[in-house]
């Protein structure tokens, strides 16, 4: 066999998957988890005993369960009982819309955890229809993001841009969604020009 017969072309990067598996019992405070197809984050962790679900209840729970990524707000773990595995009860907050989501998973089973990235872009323009124009690191523009729905952040962005400040926005991305989550002033970061 020649070398040409074994040549494979990679079409995806190493981080191409939107999620990765992690054992439920190892997910901790400030960790991320996917619940009902939404990326979520856990911000409070509490350990306590919870009652076990009957076999019928656990089947109903599995039927309702969807995979959304969220922030884990609370984790409770029960001890192993007569019905099998210890269970983890996750209470988490969706990182994009702020909704509270819950899930119960056997502690030895795998959960999906989203790849969450934060990227800084310089704000170039704000359109009348609520889209922002951002400058990427390589000098291209990114024009597919809307202004955030958070009133405080929205006001800061509009006021700062209206005052002519050079602003940098942080964009959080996970599972194919992106949203502006933070704002910085370039001058206060020390990136401004000092008298030439």
TrEMBL record:
Residues 1-12 have a biased composition (Basic and acidic residues). Transmembrane segments: none annotated. CDD domains: S1_eIF5A (cd04468). Residues 115-184 form the Translation initiation factor 5A C-terminal domain. Pfam families: eIF-5a, IF5A-like_N. Keywords: Hypusine, Protein biosynthesis. Residues 1-21 are annotated as: Disordered. One of its GO terms (biological process) is positive regulation of translational termination. SMART domains: eIF-5a (SM01376). InterPro entries: IF5A-like, IF5A-like_N, IF5A_C, NA-bd_OB-fold, Rib_uL2_dom2, Trans_elong_IF5A_hypusine_site, Translation_prot_SH3-like_sf. GO terms for molecular function: ribosome binding; RNA binding; translation elongation factor activity. Translation factor that promotes translation elongation and termination, particularly upon ribosome stalling at specific amino acid sequence contexts. Binds between the exit (E) and peptidyl (P) site of the ribosome and promotes rescue of stalled ribosome: specifically required for efficient translation of polyproline-containing peptides as well as other motifs that stall the ribosome. Acts as a ribosome quality control (RQC) cofactor by joining the RQC complex to facilitate peptidyl transfer during CAT tailing step. Belongs to the eIF-5A family. This is Translation initiation factor 5A C-terminal domain-containing protein. It comes from Camellia sinensis (Tea plant).
């Amino acid at each position: 066999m020649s070398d040409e017969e074994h040549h494979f072309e990679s079409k995806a990067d190493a981080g191409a998957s939107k999620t990765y598996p992690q054992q439920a019992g190892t997910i901790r405070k400030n960790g991320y988890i996917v619940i009902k197809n939404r990326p979520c984050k856990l911000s409070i962790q509490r350990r306590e005993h919870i009652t076990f679900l009957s076999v019928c209840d656990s089947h109903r729970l599995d039927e309702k369960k969807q995979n959304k990524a969220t922030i884990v707000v609370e984790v409770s773990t029960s001890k192993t009982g007569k019905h099998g595995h210890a269970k983890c009860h996750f209470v988490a907050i969706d990182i994009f819309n702020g909704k509270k989501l819950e899930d119960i998973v056997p502690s030895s089973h795998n959960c999906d955890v989203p790849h969450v990235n934060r990227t800084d872009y310089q704000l170039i323009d704000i359109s009348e229809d609520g889209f922002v124009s951002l400058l990427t690191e390589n000098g291209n523009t990114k024009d597919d993001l809307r202004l955030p729905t958070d009133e405080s952040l929205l006001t800061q962005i509009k006021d700062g841009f209206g005052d002519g400040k050079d602003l940098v926005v942080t964009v959080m991305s996970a599972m194919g969604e992106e949203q502006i989550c933070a704002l910085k002033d370039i001058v206060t970061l020390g990136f401004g020009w000092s008298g030439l």
